[in-house]
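Moderator note: this is an archived Q&A kept for reference. The question asked for a predicted structure of one protein chain; the sequence and the answer are reproduced below.
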Amino acid sequence: MVQVVTKSIAFCLVLLISLHSPPTVAQKLEPLDCSSLLTIDEYIEQATSFVGEKAYFLALTSINCAIEVDATRGDLYVMRGFLWLRVGFLDEAEADLTYALEIDPEQEEGNLLLSNVYFYRGDYHLALSLVNQLISDKPDSAYYHRLRGQIWKKLQNETKSLASFQQAVTVGGPHDGQSYAELGFAYQYFGYQALADENLALALDAQPTVVYQYLMLSEEAIVRRDSDDALENLDKAQQLSPTLWYIYSLRASIYGERGEYEKAKLECENIIDVEPNNPEGFVCRGLIALYTDELREALSNFEQALALDEENIPAHRGRALALAKLKQDLDSALQDINKAIDAEPFNPAAYQTRSIIFIEMGKRNEAIEDLEMVLKLTGGAAANPDILNLIDGLEQLTLEGGGSA
């Protein structure tokens, strides 16, 4: 449901004395390091770059630094609220967005994002109140009518839900594939399959790429750790494009995280069935084998993936972890993971894998540096107590016997 905020929000706001104190930085974040002394616009540009790399916690730190420069700008709290929402911290998002709206109750982005917070939390009537106001201010927004349709669907009001989606189609026009798709899925939900099929066909005619909207929504749900919403969007995507391999890949990753390994394995096999020469099917199988500690099976699948595409970064990362866990050929494992980090410099899994390799090589100082990078990329010590404990243990060993073998 969240709308992606891709540009700076152009409000210059003055803080009123009567307002509540601004929200403080949550303990989930690492302490601020604003020593670079950038301007607010430079911090915003930095944060935008981090969002493009999906390094959301680094983006949060950049916006925190901007707030340190000027705590009176409401648009900065909207930006931080968006980032909290993106990583699934609804309380923090609500605090920032509520504060921003105390500064300017009429700002559209803040009200939209706060409606998202309420929707994800299940406070549908609060979400509805905000969306009604948004529609009152901008009645020609098909997106807002779709949001209202989704809320009414959650509230099991068939008449109002279908009416909202129908209005979205009317406002969106003949090329708005997502409004047709949402109307189709609503018809399906309420038991009108013929009408559902008709509108889903219209969606694909109007916008053949509409399936990618649902893949994006699924990826966003995965980031905020809402696997049920992610799976629901993947089901929608599959109705629009039944054999798209990426749908199977995302679904496998969700099942793997949930510990539903047999379901995950079936999704990996689906990739191989529809695209036997696609390395991602073997990467998928390898990753699930890592989950289940079938290390040689994992290694074999990563090797098959690299035989199909020697530049496949997830396969290099997976092979590195398999070798590290097998405690064999650590030099090759290090080469693999360095290649992955060069390609994915903001992927915490890559740094965590390299830390394992360094530990096996006896290079504790290097392992500590990588684990500290994991903390920066994933929200800090409070969100990762196991990582913090591992760092503490390695530091103790280093004090007792030196940093590296």
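Archived answer notes: The two ends are 51 Å apart (CA to CA).
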